[in-house]
Amino acid sequence: MLQALSWAALGTGFTFLMTTLGAAVVFFFVEEPRPQFQRTMLGFAAGVMTAASVWSLLLPAIEQSADFGVPGWLPAAAGLLLGVGFLSALDAVLPHLRRAKDMDLTRRQSTLLMAAITLHNVPEGMAVGLAFALAAEGEGMAGAAALALGIGIQNLPEGAAISLPLRQEGSSRGRAFLLGTLSGSVEPIFGILVVLVAAGVRPLMPWLLSFAAGAMLYVVVEELVPQAHSKAGTCGFVGGFLIMMILDVALG
């Protein structure tokens, strides 16, 4: 058990580090990003999250469902709806952020964005933790390493997708970096927890993956796409979608 926990901590620690590196991009800006750059980054974040919802979450959820004798569409559809419902409820309980001022709208958007990406990181951390726990027992070390590498590379733009909008809304570089980093801290936490309760959690993975996908898609449609609506935002969306799609397909 100790060896499995150590390997899980190592694998999820790497993915957490990559989120931290992505969030650190805020330190390379001398001044607050301009509105056009903000729209580009919001579009980029929307593209990343859309592609990640399909290739990183929904498709794996459908594939994993077969291992438990469940129709692939069931956890994918039900989990997605639950994720949308959860983020919709979270949106509704933030009335103090529902103001007419642009700053308040941006803060509300950033709150939902961070919540969605943090939720997305939970099943990813669990997947990496399980993979390395199995690798510690002599099963699939190469696969576990590839999974951690792929998720780690994907976490780079996700960390930036949180820290940059926070910086744009007026947060200090340190605060934007800290919150971007914290979004990835759930990966080692849940990666280690899943090893401790591995037998009971595996059947829930398809549902958790789909739940995270629904949460991300809610933010994309409700918040990011309307705010990014421009040629720059469209280019950012296409770029983010292509990058995440290529990483997911190439790195499995």
UniProtKB/TrEMBL annotation:
<keyword id="KW-0862">Zinc</keyword>
<keyword id="KW-0472">Membrane</keyword>
<keyword id="KW-0812">Transmembrane</keyword>
<keyword id="KW-1133">Transmembrane helix</keyword>
<protein>
    <submittedName>
        <fullName>ZIP family metal transporter</fullName>
    </submittedName>
</protein>
<dbReference type="GO" id="GO:0005886">
    <property type="term" value="C:plasma membrane"/>
</dbReference>
<comment type="similarity">
    <text>Belongs to the ZIP transporter (TC 2.A.5) family.</text>
</comment>
<keyword id="KW-1003">Cell membrane</keyword>
<dbReference type="InterPro" id="IPR003689">
    <property type="entry name" value="ZIP"/>
</dbReference>
<feature type="transmembrane region" description="Helical">
    <location>
        <begin position="176"/>
        <end position="198"/>
    </location>
</feature>
<feature type="transmembrane region" description="Helical">
    <location>
        <begin position="233"/>
        <end position="251"/>
    </location>
</feature>
<feature type="transmembrane region" description="Helical">
    <location>
        <begin position="6"/>
        <end position="30"/>
    </location>
</feature>
<feature type="transmembrane region" description="Helical">
    <location>
        <begin position="204"/>
        <end position="221"/>
    </location>
</feature>
<dbReference type="Pfam" id="PF02535">
    <property type="entry name" value="Zip"/>
</dbReference>
<feature type="transmembrane region" description="Helical">
    <location>
        <begin position="42"/>
        <end position="62"/>
    </location>
</feature>
<dbReference type="GO" id="GO:0005385">
    <property type="term" value="F:zinc ion transmembrane transporter activity"/>
</dbReference>
<feature type="transmembrane region" description="Helical">
    <location>
        <begin position="68"/>
        <end position="90"/>
    </location>
</feature>
